[in-house]
Known about the structure:
single chain; Serine Threonine Protein Phosphatase 5, Tetratricopeptide repeat; 28 helices; 13 strands
Amino acid sequence: xxxxxxxxxxxxxxxxxxxxxxxxxxxxxxxxxxxxxxxxxxxxxxxxxxxxxxxxxxxxxxxxxxxxxxxxxxxxxxxxxxxxxxxxxxxxxxxxxxxxxxxxxxxxxxxxxxxxxxxxxxxxxxxxxxxxxxxxxxxxxxxxxxxxxxxxxxxxxxxxxxxxxxxxxxxxxxxxxxxxxxxxxxxxxxxxxxxxxxxxxxxxxxxxxxxxxxxxxxxxxxxxxxxxxxxxxxxxxxxxxxxxxxxxxxxxxxxxxxxxxxxxxxxxxxxxxxxxxxxxxxxxxxxxxxxxxxxxxxxxxxxxxxxxxxxxxxxxxxxxxxxxxxxxxxxxxxxxxxxxxxxxxxxxxxxxxxxxxxxxxxxxxxxxxxxxxxxxxxxxxxxxxxxxxxxxxxxxxxxxxxxxxxxxxxxxxxxxxxxxxxxxxxxxxxxxxxxxxxxxxxxxxxxxxxxxxxxxxxxxxxxxxxxxxxxxxxxxxxxxxxxxxxxxxxxxxxxxxxxxxxxxxxxxxxxxxxxxxxxxxxxxxxxxxxxxxxxxxxxxxxxxxxxxxxxxxxxxxxxxxxxxxxxxxxxxxxxxxxxxxxxxxxxxxxxxxxxxxxxxxxxxxxxxxxxxxxxxxxxxxxxxxxxxxxxxxxxxxxxxxxxxxxxxx
Length: 649
């Protein structure tokens, strides 16, 4: 049997029939890492550091030995040996497993358009997804892979844009160009390439329209929240352990999302890699990672252009060409740094220089000892932001620093893993972890929107029509929007909460905003489809959920459940059952299965599902449930009622 390692859209091992195969997550990370190496092999000690960090090598090596035993046992069960182990090395057997990572290789000179199509399809999905690995080596490798993907995307786009193409090819180009906006928005070379692409399509204003649409969506989002969320909603969130009260979203908050095409008016900054005059590889590694981290973080600011880290590294090693590079790219500020040995752990001396006058506007020295790294990053970023441009919103900077709290992020990742499983215990574990994240970082927007999701999912699973769950979901969604209004997830969760309360128009508007902010975000498209089902627009819903499944082919159960609901509303009962049959846990849709079989006059099969529903929820009451489940049109409610009544509820 052939096996395939999926790295885009979540880290999974699947068999030849595209079924997920159980395999240790750390083993999957090993596979992914080794497949990116030339030799396909690495030392055990290096891999232990990659998986568990290097703070305690002895513990990491013990963990490695235990994991190797589990991997060997699982590979024996599968009859396939992807990884092999010697006394001090780990090897990947490339013939035993294929991967989507092979499509992110060097430019294929034979058919770059085909490769660009494959690459854009992959990059619309999240690379790896949430995984339980927090080491610096892992983050360094992860950043290298993202840089490799972006570099390849840019190279392919440049090649294909110069060749003759059909309308279909042009759509691929535009799709790749939009991806590149998010990947390297601050890179002037990328911007020039995008202008060339859109000009070649006689759509020179397309880029501006995309960004203006995003800006308008943010403005509409502010209006939506302020118009629809009342004081009671916010107090509900506060009683559910939300921290300090929320402020109203106002027009004074940043509208830089539209992106001023007059790029020269925006301050431009390059963060050069640290120079090492004392020859300490460990300090150099930490300092380089710190500067790269800050560079990536600053790319989030629309009032400041940051030269991509890759370009900064290249120019950092070419001292004789630096002045010409700075002048050619109209750089205003240079962050220069060097490592010294003033302490046993090493220090990083940093100075911010205003290039036109060669003026040092700020300088500071930071310790490179592990406990001081987070504080150093905050201080460096804060001072650069305040020195470079008064137009950088201070509250945005403060939000960014707080979101970088490592304890909050760790709890968030753990919570996300539970949230992917649609069971009440997992939802409550996810909520607990997300609230732990909020204790460490009170306005961590991803955690806030995830908590909102736990409440709306609990409302669906318990089937009791508990309005307090939906009010809590709405409150946390609003708080997520207030914390980070350019993130799609908050609007999505507001849309879900409004939908389940029967506020169809407000829900549809929130979902439209969410999809505008995340046009290729499969989960948001899927939730938008679910909203359209409940708005009694099943045909539109089906088109949208099929798009989500296309973006995320190994679809979670929620996608398939939505597709089943849309088909039921279209009286396509057998197709609805087919989608339910593809779910990993089809029992989630037992009520819908019962209704489908009843409408197909298969009463015996329908009663099997009725019994299962009553066993799982002895207090289930049909009228209460139908009153709670939102459907905008009467024909839709009647169709669902008829199916459930015929089934025996």
